[in-house]
Amino acid sequence: MQVSIISLIFLVGFVHVCLSATTPEWIGFYNVDNSCNQATCCCLSEQVKITKANNTHFLVEANVAGVPCQAQLSGATSISVPLLIPQDKNGFQITTMFLGTNNRFTLSADSQYIAHANLQSPQCSGSARRAVSNWVGTFNIDDSCNQDECCCLSEQATISKKSETQYLVAGRVAGKPCAAQLNGSTTVEVTIGAPQDKNGFQITTNFLSTNNRFTLTYDNQYVANVNLQYPQCSGMGRRVDENKNTASLISSSLILIVINAFLFRMICV
């Protein structure tokens, strides 16, 4: 049954790819895999940010790691490199010099993955997956917020989507100021705007009467809360694990869809 469903999804994906006019979207944040050999290569690492520098160039900003980085980049652990806006394969590919070697970068048809092939040193190749923010979920709250001085989110908090422009944060609260601040309530429901900063991974907003900055990690697993007025009232939430078997099936299916859609697009064009 699962195979039939996945096959149907493939078919729908193929039809969509061939019938829709896809436009490459390189700009964004990407999580980098660990396939680049850091023992012999200076590799892009962790996250990559691509922005548009001007009408002809992108700007690639990234962390780097690897034994050769020390000599190659004079000890730097990050880079900022201009890259010509790709023109090959209808804008989905570019072959260019990057960090001293000849490389080919290919964006998938859905603009979710970048395949990086080092044409001189294949062991220095890798890939990256677009980081897409997902705030919705349940998060376990740590105990770093000082309850003697602050009214803190406590135990668990749930974030749900109210609309395209708003989220609802609901959770328990604890701390000495809560009784006066919330008239004795031990729970809160607070509406916040949909995050727009850092490509949707950050928002600065008023929360429980103080100015706070909430930042979602690129793997969507943690939310860091910095209280900009009272740092001792800051804290962090960690996403509660979901059903791993279901997640694994969905993840595997999506990866297969992307790969097949990418290959099918090459046939269609």
Helix tally equals: 6
Q: Helical content, roughly?
A: 10-25%
Uncertain runs are 8-12, 14-21, 243-253, 255-269
Mean pLDDT across the residues is 85
Total discrete domains: 2
User: Judging from the principal axes of the Cα atoms, what is the shape?
Assistant: elongated
Percent of residues in beta strands: 35-45%
Question: Mind telling me the C-alpha Rg?
Answer: 22 Å
- How would you spell out the order of helices and strands? HEEEHEHEEEEEEEHEHEEEEH
Biggest sheet details:
8 strands, antiparallel
Strand order of the biggest β-sheet: 4-3-2-1-8-7-6-5
* Overall SS class: alpha+beta
Task: Provide the CATH architecture of the largest domain.
Answer: Beta Barrel
Q: Distance N terminus to C terminus? A: 32 Å
> What fold name stands as the CATH topology of the largest domain?
Lipocalin
At the first level of CATH, the class of the largest domain is Mainly Beta
Strand count: 16
